[in-house]
Amino acid sequence: MYLEKKCVALVNQFWVLERKQMDILDNLKEVVVEKPADIIIKQIRKLLNDGHLKPGDRLPSERKLAERFGIGRTHVRDAIKKLEFYGILKTLPQSGTVVSGLEITVLEGLITDILKLDNYSFSSLTEVRLILEMNAAKYCAMRRNINELKEIETALIQHEASLQKNSKLIPTNQDFLFHRKIVEGSNNQVLKSMLLTITPDILTNYNSLRICSVDDKEENSRIIQEHRDIYESIKEQNPDKASIAMRKHLGRVMKLSHGDNPY
């Protein structure tokens, strides 16, 4: 009887400790590591709120901002590009980067929305990418010039080379170079800006899932052939064929992002 009571007491003590541990965990928040670009955007928002930065004011140069923030100019450039895309900043010839003429409350609201939109899900990213790139391939087939076609072909060859084991090129980066050249060939700056806005988050997911950098020879051959089909459609200036080829190419990633079997 004594041993039985002792066991019951130990079990009860265990569950009390377990519940306490769960209570502690429930009151802890996930640690979110902020991107340097978002930290810069928040500081710009604070300058606007405090009245130190007003519509029409010119920002210091990228170099000076990078020195002040103590980070690389790439992060500063990413922040500025994001704010430019949403109309908060404008880069004017011979005037540098200035704050747009919108009211402070509107600017602050836009920046808040940008920061909220930064938590993209992979499925949302791939859906948007599919929409953008199907149209980019279509317009590229219609509008590309000889030089742009040559740049797409060069990117195609470089990506194929990157899939070789002895290559120092990174397959994911070369894959995106091929796709970026197609967007540039569409001669639509809005399409290009939108893709560049979501590219960092896409690359993060692609690298973690090892998409476009697989070791499977059969899979690599499939990717190469699909890239060639897209290129040939653009070369033939067949917009519908190019759009369909792009949809087929990105279809596997779409399925992956939604948790489906891509095969």
- Rg from alpha-carbon coordinates: 25 Å
**What strand line-up does the widest sheet have?**
1-2
Instruction: Say how many strands there are.
Output: 2
Taking the alpha carbons of the first and last residues, their distance comes to 62 Å
Strand content: under 5%
CATH architectural grouping of the largest domain: Up-down Bundle
Low-confidence residue ranges: none
N-to-C series of helices and strands: HHHHEEHHHHHHH
Given the structure, what is the number of helices?
Answer: 11
Number of domains: 2
Whole-number mean pLDDT = 79
For the largest beta-sheet, the strand count, sense and barrel status come to: 2 strands, antiparallel
What does this protein look like?
The chain is mainly alpha-helical and 263 residues long. The protein has two domains: 81 residues, Arc Repressor Mutant, subunit A, CATH 1.10.10; 136 residues, Four Helix Bundle (Hemerythrin (Met), subunit A) (Up-down Bundle), CATH 1.20.120. It has a two-stranded antiparallel ribbon.
